[in-house]
Amino acid sequence: MPSPALLTLACALSIATGASAYSYGAGNPQASQEKQFSQEFRDSYSILKHYGGNGPYSERQSYGVARDPPTGCEVDQVIAIKRHGERYPSPSAGEGIESALAKVYKANSTVYKGDLAFLNDWTYYVPDACYYNAETFSGPYAGLLDGYAMGNEYRARYGHLWDGESVVPLFSSGYSRVINTARKFGEGFFGYNYSTNAALNIITESETQGADSLTPSCDVDNDQTTCNALTNIMPEFKVAAARLNSQNPGMNLTASDIYNLMVMASYELNARPFSHWINAFTQDEWVSFGYVEDLNYYYCAGPGDKNMAAVGAVYANASLTLLNQGPEEAGSIFFNFAHDTNITPILAALGILIPDEDLPLDRIPFGNPYSTGNIVPQGGHFVIERLSCKATPISKAGPYVRLVLNEGVVPFNDCTDGPGYSCSLANYTSILNKNLPDYTSTCDVPASYPQYLSFWWDYNTTTTLNYPSGPIKCQEGDASD
Fold first, then answer.
1. One of 212, 294, 305, 340 is an active-site residue; which one?
2. Is 284 a catalytic residue?
3. Band of residue 31 on the pLDDT scale cut at 50, 70, 90
4. CATH label, 41-481, candidates 3.40.50.1240, 3.30.70.100, 3.40.50.2000, 3.30.1340.30
5. Where are the domains of the chain?
6. CB within 8 Å of 169: residues ≥ 6 apart
7. Is 276 a catalytic residue?
8. pTM value?
Protein backbone atom coordinates (compact mmCIF):
# COMPACT_ATOMS: atom_id res chain seq x y z
CA MET A 1 0.00 0.00 0.00
CA PRO A 2 1.57 3.36 -0.99
CA SER A 3 2.25 5.72 1.89
CA PRO A 4 0.02 8.83 2.33
CA ALA A 5 2.95 11.00 1.21
CA LEU A 6 3.38 9.06 -2.03
CA LEU A 7 -0.35 9.17 -2.71
CA THR A 8 -0.34 12.94 -2.25
CA LEU A 9 2.59 13.30 -4.68
CA ALA A 10 0.91 10.99 -7.20
CA CYS A 11 -2.30 12.99 -7.08
CA ALA A 12 -0.41 16.22 -7.60
CA LEU A 13 1.34 14.74 -10.63
CA SER A 14 -1.96 13.51 -12.04
CA ILE A 15 -3.39 17.00 -11.88
CA ALA A 16 -0.33 18.47 -13.61
CA THR A 17 -0.04 15.83 -16.32
CA GLY A 18 -3.56 14.52 -16.72
CA ALA A 19 -2.36 11.00 -15.80
CA SER A 20 -3.97 8.59 -13.42
CA ALA A 21 -2.36 8.52 -9.99
CA TYR A 22 -1.89 4.78 -10.40
CA SER A 23 -0.52 4.78 -14.01
CA TYR A 24 2.74 3.01 -13.29
CA GLY A 25 4.56 0.26 -15.09
CA ALA A 26 6.83 -0.39 -18.06
CA GLY A 27 5.30 0.09 -21.49
CA ASN A 28 2.74 2.64 -20.31
CA PRO A 29 3.35 6.00 -22.06
CA GLN A 30 1.97 7.78 -19.01
CA ALA A 31 4.82 6.37 -16.94
CA SER A 32 7.25 8.65 -18.82
CA GLN A 33 7.93 12.22 -17.73
CA GLU A 34 8.52 13.28 -21.34
CA LYS A 35 5.97 15.77 -22.64
CA GLN A 36 3.83 14.70 -25.57
CA PHE A 37 4.02 18.22 -27.02
CA SER A 38 6.93 20.60 -26.60
CA GLN A 39 6.06 24.01 -25.20
CA GLU A 40 9.11 25.59 -26.85
CA PHE A 41 8.84 27.51 -30.10
CA ARG A 42 12.29 28.87 -30.82
CA ASP A 43 12.01 29.52 -34.54
CA SER A 44 10.79 33.09 -34.15
CA TYR A 45 14.23 34.39 -35.13
CA SER A 46 16.11 33.12 -38.15
CA ILE A 47 18.65 35.06 -40.14
CA LEU A 48 17.05 33.65 -43.28
CA LYS A 49 13.93 35.70 -42.55
CA HIS A 50 15.95 38.94 -42.39
CA TYR A 51 17.83 38.59 -45.67
CA GLY A 52 14.92 39.97 -47.68
CA GLY A 53 15.04 38.45 -51.13
CA ASN A 54 18.82 37.99 -51.11
CA GLY A 55 19.47 34.85 -49.15
CA PRO A 56 18.78 31.13 -49.45
CA TYR A 57 15.29 29.72 -49.74
CA SER A 58 13.33 28.95 -46.60
CA GLU A 59 9.75 27.80 -46.31
CA ARG A 60 7.11 30.31 -45.35
CA GLN A 61 6.12 30.65 -41.71
CA SER A 62 2.60 29.38 -42.19
CA TYR A 63 -0.81 29.88 -40.60
CA GLY A 64 -0.83 26.24 -39.51
CA VAL A 65 -3.01 24.99 -42.39
CA ALA A 66 -1.83 21.60 -43.68
CA ARG A 67 0.10 21.69 -46.96
CA ASP A 68 -1.34 18.42 -48.25
CA PRO A 69 -4.76 18.56 -49.94
CA PRO A 70 -7.72 18.62 -47.54
CA THR A 71 -9.52 15.37 -46.84
CA GLY A 72 -11.82 14.51 -49.73
CA CYS A 73 -9.94 16.74 -52.19
CA GLU A 74 -7.42 16.07 -54.92
CA VAL A 75 -5.34 18.53 -56.91
CA ASP A 76 -6.40 18.26 -60.56
CA GLN A 77 -4.52 21.30 -61.88
CA VAL A 78 -1.43 23.17 -60.71
CA ILE A 79 -0.23 26.60 -61.88
CA ALA A 80 3.09 27.60 -60.34
CA ILE A 81 5.66 30.35 -60.78
CA LYS A 82 9.11 29.96 -59.28
CA ARG A 83 11.86 32.48 -58.83
CA HIS A 84 15.27 31.39 -60.06
CA GLY A 85 17.51 29.63 -57.58
CA GLU A 86 20.12 31.19 -55.32
CA ARG A 87 22.53 33.49 -57.13
CA TYR A 88 25.49 35.81 -56.75
CA PRO A 89 24.81 39.55 -56.22
CA SER A 90 23.82 41.74 -59.15
CA PRO A 91 26.45 43.93 -60.82
CA SER A 92 24.92 47.07 -59.26
CA ALA A 93 25.02 45.47 -55.80
CA GLY A 94 28.56 44.35 -56.57
CA GLU A 95 29.64 47.95 -57.11
CA GLY A 96 28.44 48.94 -53.65
CA ILE A 97 29.96 45.84 -52.09
CA GLU A 98 33.36 46.37 -53.68
CA SER A 99 33.33 50.05 -52.69
CA ALA A 100 32.68 49.16 -49.04
CA LEU A 101 35.24 46.35 -49.08
CA ALA A 102 37.83 48.74 -50.49
CA LYS A 103 37.43 50.90 -47.37
CA VAL A 104 37.77 47.83 -45.17
CA TYR A 105 40.92 46.59 -46.88
CA LYS A 106 42.51 50.02 -47.18
CA ALA A 107 42.25 50.62 -43.45
CA ASN A 108 43.97 47.47 -42.31
CA SER A 109 45.48 44.88 -44.60
CA THR A 110 47.15 42.73 -41.94
CA VAL A 111 45.29 42.31 -38.64
CA TYR A 112 41.59 42.91 -38.04
CA LYS A 113 40.05 43.11 -34.60
CA GLY A 114 36.70 42.76 -32.91
CA ASP A 115 33.71 41.72 -35.00
CA LEU A 116 35.83 41.67 -38.17
CA ALA A 117 38.65 39.48 -36.83
CA PHE A 118 37.59 36.72 -39.24
CA LEU A 119 38.76 38.90 -42.16
CA ASN A 120 42.32 37.80 -41.49
CA ASP A 121 41.39 34.52 -43.22
CA TRP A 122 38.35 35.50 -45.34
CA THR A 123 38.15 36.01 -49.10
CA TYR A 124 35.32 37.46 -51.17
CA TYR A 125 33.11 34.68 -52.51
CA VAL A 126 32.60 36.14 -56.01
CA PRO A 127 35.57 34.78 -58.00
CA ASP A 128 35.19 37.09 -61.00
CA ALA A 129 32.99 40.01 -62.05
CA CYS A 130 31.29 37.84 -64.67
CA TYR A 131 29.73 35.80 -61.85
CA TYR A 132 27.55 38.72 -60.79
CA ASN A 133 23.90 37.79 -61.38
CA ALA A 134 24.79 34.16 -62.12
CA GLU A 135 23.10 31.29 -60.33
CA THR A 136 25.33 29.54 -57.80
CA PHE A 137 26.36 25.93 -58.33
CA SER A 138 28.35 25.01 -55.19
CA GLY A 139 27.55 24.68 -51.50
CA PRO A 140 24.46 23.30 -49.74
CA TYR A 141 22.34 26.34 -50.72
CA ALA A 142 23.34 26.36 -54.40
CA GLY A 143 20.76 27.67 -56.86
CA LEU A 144 21.05 24.79 -59.31
CA LEU A 145 20.56 22.35 -56.44
CA ASP A 146 17.49 24.33 -55.35
CA GLY A 147 15.90 23.95 -58.79
CA TYR A 148 16.54 20.22 -58.97
CA ALA A 149 15.37 19.58 -55.40
CA MET A 150 12.08 21.39 -55.94
CA GLY A 151 11.46 19.50 -59.18
CA ASN A 152 12.05 16.25 -57.32
CA GLU A 153 9.71 17.30 -54.50
CA TYR A 154 6.98 18.39 -56.89
CA ARG A 155 7.16 15.12 -58.80
CA ALA A 156 6.14 13.44 -55.55
CA ARG A 157 3.42 16.02 -54.94
CA TYR A 158 2.01 16.50 -58.43
CA GLY A 159 3.27 13.48 -60.35
CA HIS A 160 -0.25 12.10 -60.54
CA LEU A 161 -1.12 14.91 -62.98
CA TRP A 162 1.27 13.54 -65.62
CA ASP A 163 0.36 10.42 -67.56
CA GLY A 164 3.99 9.43 -68.01
CA GLU A 165 3.83 9.73 -71.80
CA SER A 166 2.68 13.17 -72.94
CA VAL A 167 5.03 16.11 -73.50
CA VAL A 168 4.62 18.82 -70.86
CA PRO A 169 5.67 22.42 -71.59
CA LEU A 170 7.76 24.39 -69.10
CA PHE A 171 7.71 28.18 -69.38
CA SER A 172 10.75 30.30 -68.55
CA SER A 173 11.45 33.99 -68.92
CA GLY A 174 14.48 34.74 -71.03
CA TYR A 175 17.23 35.30 -68.46
CA SER A 176 20.09 32.84 -68.12
CA ARG A 177 19.69 31.98 -64.43
CA VAL A 178 15.93 31.57 -64.82
CA ILE A 179 16.39 29.23 -67.77
CA ASN A 180 18.95 27.19 -65.82
CA THR A 181 16.54 26.87 -62.90
CA ALA A 182 13.77 25.70 -65.23
CA ARG A 183 16.07 23.08 -66.72
CA LYS A 184 17.17 21.76 -63.34
CA PHE A 185 13.58 21.71 -62.09
CA GLY A 186 12.60 19.74 -65.19
CA GLU A 187 15.36 17.22 -64.56
CA GLY A 188 14.15 16.82 -60.98
CA PHE A 189 10.49 16.45 -61.97
CA PHE A 190 10.79 14.25 -65.06
CA GLY A 191 13.96 12.34 -64.18
CA TYR A 192 15.19 10.22 -67.09
CA ASN A 193 12.25 11.45 -69.16
CA TYR A 194 13.26 15.13 -69.07
CA SER A 195 15.00 14.99 -72.45
CA THR A 196 11.92 13.56 -74.18
CA ASN A 197 8.84 14.60 -72.20
CA ALA A 198 9.53 18.21 -71.20
CA ALA A 199 9.40 21.06 -73.69
CA LEU A 200 11.10 24.22 -72.48
CA ASN A 201 9.47 27.37 -73.84
CA ILE A 202 11.55 30.54 -73.36
CA ILE A 203 9.56 33.78 -73.30
CA THR A 204 11.65 36.86 -74.04
CA GLU A 205 11.82 39.53 -71.33
CA SER A 206 11.62 42.34 -73.89
CA GLU A 207 8.94 44.93 -73.17
CA THR A 208 7.74 44.46 -76.75
CA GLN A 209 6.28 41.16 -75.54
CA GLY A 210 3.56 43.27 -73.92
CA ALA A 211 1.06 41.19 -71.95
CA ASP A 212 2.17 37.89 -73.47
CA SER A 213 4.96 37.68 -70.93
CA LEU A 214 6.09 36.33 -67.58
CA THR A 215 7.85 39.66 -67.01
CA PRO A 216 5.40 42.41 -68.05
CA SER A 217 6.60 45.94 -67.36
CA CYS A 218 4.93 49.26 -66.60
CA ASP A 219 6.77 52.55 -67.03
CA VAL A 220 3.81 54.86 -66.47
CA ASP A 221 4.29 57.46 -63.71
CA ASN A 222 6.98 55.35 -62.08
CA ASP A 223 8.06 57.44 -59.07
CA GLN A 224 11.25 55.99 -57.50
CA THR A 225 11.75 58.67 -54.82
CA THR A 226 11.07 56.35 -51.90
CA CYS A 227 12.99 53.47 -53.45
CA ASN A 228 16.13 55.57 -53.83
CA ALA A 229 16.24 56.70 -50.20
CA LEU A 230 15.94 53.45 -48.26
CA THR A 231 19.54 52.54 -47.43
CA ASN A 232 20.05 55.40 -44.97
CA ILE A 233 16.78 55.40 -43.04
CA MET A 234 17.68 52.93 -40.27
CA PRO A 235 19.71 54.29 -37.32
CA GLU A 236 21.07 50.81 -36.66
CA PHE A 237 23.28 51.11 -39.75
CA LYS A 238 24.97 54.19 -38.27
CA VAL A 239 25.45 52.35 -34.96
CA ALA A 240 27.09 49.44 -36.78
CA ALA A 241 29.39 51.79 -38.68
CA ALA A 242 30.51 53.48 -35.45
CA ARG A 243 31.18 50.12 -33.78
CA LEU A 244 33.23 48.64 -36.61
CA ASN A 245 35.13 51.90 -37.16
CA SER A 246 36.09 52.04 -33.48
CA GLN A 247 37.30 48.43 -33.53
CA ASN A 248 39.36 48.99 -36.67
CA PRO A 249 40.37 52.67 -36.94
CA GLY A 250 40.79 54.08 -40.42
CA MET A 251 37.92 52.31 -42.18
CA ASN A 252 35.54 55.30 -42.03
CA LEU A 253 32.51 53.21 -42.93
CA THR A 254 29.20 55.02 -43.43
CA ALA A 255 25.63 53.81 -42.98
CA SER A 256 25.46 53.13 -46.72
CA ASP A 257 28.65 51.06 -46.50
CA ILE A 258 27.10 49.00 -43.74
CA TYR A 259 24.03 48.36 -45.86
CA ASN A 260 26.25 47.23 -48.75
CA LEU A 261 28.26 44.93 -46.48
CA MET A 262 25.04 43.40 -45.17
CA VAL A 263 23.88 42.89 -48.75
CA MET A 264 27.15 41.06 -49.35
CA ALA A 265 26.65 38.95 -46.23
CA SER A 266 23.09 38.08 -47.19
CA TYR A 267 24.30 36.58 -50.49
CA GLU A 268 27.27 34.65 -49.11
CA LEU A 269 25.30 31.57 -48.07
CA ASN A 270 24.09 31.23 -51.66
CA ALA A 271 27.64 30.23 -52.58
CA ARG A 272 29.08 28.88 -49.32
CA PRO A 273 27.91 26.70 -46.44
CA PHE A 274 28.93 29.26 -43.80
CA SER A 275 29.21 33.05 -43.46
CA HIS A 276 31.24 34.78 -40.75
CA TRP A 277 29.71 38.09 -41.82
CA ILE A 278 26.40 37.14 -40.21
CA ASN A 279 27.92 37.51 -36.74
CA ALA A 280 29.62 40.80 -37.61
CA PHE A 281 26.22 42.47 -37.19
CA THR A 282 23.80 42.34 -34.30
CA GLN A 283 20.32 40.88 -34.29
CA ASP A 284 18.81 44.38 -34.21
CA GLU A 285 20.87 45.34 -37.23
CA TRP A 286 19.67 42.30 -39.15
CA VAL A 287 16.04 42.95 -38.26
CA SER A 288 16.46 46.49 -39.55
CA PHE A 289 18.13 45.28 -42.73
CA GLY A 290 15.28 42.86 -43.34
CA TYR A 291 12.73 45.64 -42.94
CA VAL A 292 14.58 47.84 -45.45
CA GLU A 293 14.28 44.95 -47.89
CA ASP A 294 10.56 44.72 -47.10
CA LEU A 295 10.22 48.41 -47.91
CA ASN A 296 12.13 47.96 -51.13
CA TYR A 297 9.80 45.25 -52.42
CA TYR A 298 6.64 46.90 -51.08
CA TYR A 299 7.21 50.33 -52.63
CA CYS A 300 9.21 49.33 -55.68
CA ALA A 301 7.72 46.01 -56.83
CA GLY A 302 4.64 45.39 -54.73
CA PRO A 303 1.37 46.88 -53.50
CA GLY A 304 3.03 50.15 -52.48
CA ASP A 305 3.51 50.88 -56.19
CA LYS A 306 0.12 51.76 -57.65
CA ASN A 307 0.91 50.06 -60.97
CA MET A 308 1.99 46.66 -59.68
CA ALA A 309 -1.49 45.20 -59.21
CA ALA A 310 -2.15 45.85 -62.89
CA VAL A 311 1.13 44.18 -63.83
CA GLY A 312 0.27 41.13 -61.74
CA ALA A 313 -3.23 41.03 -63.21
CA VAL A 314 -1.75 39.64 -66.44
CA TYR A 315 -0.81 36.37 -64.72
CA ALA A 316 -3.80 36.37 -62.35
CA ASN A 317 -6.30 36.83 -65.17
CA ALA A 318 -4.75 34.23 -67.48
CA SER A 319 -4.51 31.68 -64.66
CA LEU A 320 -8.19 32.31 -63.89
CA THR A 321 -9.00 31.25 -67.44
CA LEU A 322 -7.00 28.03 -66.98
CA LEU A 323 -8.82 27.26 -63.74
CA ASN A 324 -12.23 27.69 -65.33
CA GLN A 325 -11.31 25.67 -68.39
CA GLY A 326 -10.10 22.93 -66.07
CA PRO A 327 -7.65 20.12 -66.73
CA GLU A 328 -9.77 18.46 -69.41
CA GLU A 329 -9.70 21.49 -71.70
CA ALA A 330 -6.57 23.40 -70.68
CA GLY A 331 -4.25 20.78 -69.19
CA SER A 332 -3.11 19.96 -65.68
CA ILE A 333 0.47 21.21 -65.28
CA PHE A 334 1.73 24.77 -65.77
CA PHE A 335 5.20 25.35 -64.32
CA ASN A 336 6.63 28.84 -64.87
CA PHE A 337 9.96 30.44 -63.98
CA ALA A 338 10.81 34.13 -63.62
CA HIS A 339 12.11 36.66 -61.05
CA ASP A 340 11.14 37.87 -57.59
CA THR A 341 9.70 41.11 -58.96
CA ASN A 342 7.40 39.10 -61.21
CA ILE A 343 5.88 37.26 -58.23
CA THR A 344 5.21 40.26 -55.99
CA PRO A 345 2.90 41.96 -58.54
CA ILE A 346 0.82 38.77 -58.77
CA LEU A 347 0.29 38.79 -55.01
CA ALA A 348 -0.64 42.47 -55.22
CA ALA A 349 -3.19 41.73 -57.94
CA LEU A 350 -4.74 38.95 -55.84
CA GLY A 351 -4.86 41.26 -52.82
CA ILE A 352 -3.09 38.90 -50.41
CA LEU A 353 -0.55 39.82 -47.72
CA ILE A 354 -1.30 43.52 -48.10
CA PRO A 355 -0.88 45.63 -44.94
CA ASP A 356 -3.82 47.69 -43.71
CA GLU A 357 -1.68 50.81 -44.20
CA ASP A 358 1.41 51.64 -46.22
CA LEU A 359 4.58 50.50 -44.49
CA PRO A 360 6.07 53.30 -42.35
CA LEU A 361 9.55 54.64 -43.10
CA ASP A 362 10.36 55.74 -39.53
CA ARG A 363 9.79 52.54 -37.55
CA ILE A 364 9.44 48.78 -37.88
CA PRO A 365 5.79 47.64 -37.64
CA PHE A 366 6.17 44.24 -36.02
CA GLY A 367 3.56 41.81 -37.26
CA ASN A 368 3.92 43.24 -40.75
CA PRO A 369 2.44 40.71 -43.21
CA TYR A 370 4.73 41.95 -45.98
CA SER A 371 7.87 40.17 -44.82
CA THR A 372 9.85 39.42 -47.95
CA GLY A 373 11.86 36.66 -46.29
CA ASN A 374 8.55 34.81 -46.31
CA ILE A 375 7.47 36.02 -49.75
CA VAL A 376 10.36 36.01 -52.25
CA PRO A 377 13.53 34.40 -50.92
CA GLN A 378 15.84 33.05 -53.57
CA GLY A 379 14.00 30.11 -55.10
CA GLY A 380 10.66 31.38 -53.76
CA HIS A 381 7.53 30.15 -55.50
CA PHE A 382 3.79 30.75 -55.66
CA VAL A 383 1.36 27.96 -56.46
CA ILE A 384 -2.31 28.04 -57.45
CA GLU A 385 -3.96 24.66 -56.97
CA ARG A 386 -7.30 23.65 -58.44
CA LEU A 387 -8.90 21.15 -56.09
CA SER A 388 -11.60 18.63 -56.97
CA CYS A 389 -13.46 18.09 -53.69
CA LYS A 390 -16.22 15.85 -52.46
CA ALA A 391 -19.10 17.30 -50.48
CA THR A 392 -18.60 17.87 -46.75
CA PRO A 393 -21.03 18.93 -44.03
CA ILE A 394 -20.05 22.56 -44.65
CA SER A 395 -19.16 22.66 -48.35
CA LYS A 396 -20.53 21.40 -51.65
CA ALA A 397 -18.75 19.10 -54.04
CA GLY A 398 -16.92 20.84 -56.86
CA PRO A 399 -13.80 22.75 -57.84
CA TYR A 400 -11.97 24.91 -55.29
CA VAL A 401 -8.88 27.10 -55.43
CA ARG A 402 -6.03 27.10 -52.94
CA LEU A 403 -3.02 29.44 -52.84
CA VAL A 404 0.36 28.23 -51.57
CA LEU A 405 3.38 30.49 -51.09
CA ASN A 406 6.74 28.88 -50.34
CA GLU A 407 4.90 25.76 -49.12
CA GLY A 408 2.68 27.73 -46.74
CA VAL A 409 -1.06 27.79 -47.46
CA VAL A 410 -2.31 31.38 -47.71
CA PRO A 411 -6.11 31.74 -47.43
CA PHE A 412 -7.55 33.94 -50.17
CA ASN A 413 -8.82 37.20 -48.68
CA ASP A 414 -12.25 36.66 -47.10
CA CYS A 415 -13.06 33.59 -49.20
CA THR A 416 -12.49 30.42 -47.19
CA ASP A 417 -15.71 28.58 -47.98
CA GLY A 418 -14.05 25.31 -49.01
CA PRO A 419 -12.19 22.42 -47.39
CA GLY A 420 -8.84 23.38 -45.90
CA TYR A 421 -9.82 27.08 -46.10
CA SER A 422 -9.84 26.96 -49.89
CA CYS A 423 -12.12 29.16 -51.99
CA SER A 424 -14.75 27.84 -54.34
CA LEU A 425 -13.81 28.44 -57.95
CA ALA A 426 -17.09 30.29 -58.47
CA ASN A 427 -16.38 32.77 -55.66
CA TYR A 428 -12.70 33.08 -56.63
CA THR A 429 -13.77 33.91 -60.18
CA SER A 430 -16.32 36.45 -59.01
CA ILE A 431 -13.84 38.23 -56.76
CA LEU A 432 -11.12 38.44 -59.43
CA ASN A 433 -13.50 39.56 -62.15
CA LYS A 434 -14.60 42.37 -59.86
CA ASN A 435 -11.21 43.45 -58.55
CA LEU A 436 -8.52 42.84 -61.16
CA PRO A 437 -7.29 46.06 -62.84
CA ASP A 438 -6.65 46.23 -66.57
CA TYR A 439 -2.98 45.99 -67.48
CA THR A 440 -3.00 47.38 -71.00
CA SER A 441 -4.88 50.57 -70.15
CA THR A 442 -3.15 51.19 -66.80
CA CYS A 443 0.29 50.78 -68.31
CA ASP A 444 -0.41 52.31 -71.73
CA VAL A 445 0.68 49.18 -73.56
CA PRO A 446 1.10 50.05 -77.27
CA ALA A 447 -1.54 48.49 -79.51
CA SER A 448 1.25 46.89 -81.55
CA TYR A 449 2.31 44.80 -78.50
CA PRO A 450 0.43 41.61 -77.46
CA GLN A 451 -2.60 42.53 -75.36
CA TYR A 452 -3.02 39.30 -73.40
CA LEU A 453 -1.08 36.23 -72.27
CA SER A 454 -1.38 33.44 -74.84
CA PHE A 455 1.70 31.20 -74.51
CA TRP A 456 -0.04 28.82 -72.07
CA TRP A 457 -2.26 27.83 -74.97
CA ASP A 458 0.15 28.43 -77.85
CA TYR A 459 3.38 26.66 -76.97
CA ASN A 460 5.95 24.44 -78.63
CA THR A 461 6.39 20.78 -77.79
CA THR A 462 9.91 20.40 -79.17
CA THR A 463 12.77 19.60 -76.82
CA THR A 464 15.46 21.63 -78.57
CA LEU A 465 15.78 24.16 -75.73
CA ASN A 466 15.88 21.64 -72.88
CA TYR A 467 19.68 21.84 -72.79
CA PRO A 468 22.13 24.60 -73.71
CA SER A 469 23.60 24.33 -77.17
CA GLY A 470 27.13 25.11 -76.08
CA PRO A 471 29.34 25.82 -73.05
CA ILE A 472 27.66 27.84 -70.29
CA LYS A 473 29.52 31.03 -69.49
CA CYS A 474 29.58 32.19 -65.88
CA GLN A 475 26.97 34.79 -66.82
CA GLU A 476 25.04 34.89 -70.04
CA GLY A 477 22.37 37.48 -69.25
CA ASP A 478 19.24 37.64 -71.33
CA ALA A 479 18.56 34.89 -73.85
CA SER A 480 15.39 34.55 -75.84
CA ASP A 481 16.36 31.46 -77.77
1. 340
2. no
3. low
4. 3.40.50.1240
5. 41-481
6. 198, 199, 200, 201, 459, 460, 461
7. no
8. 0.90
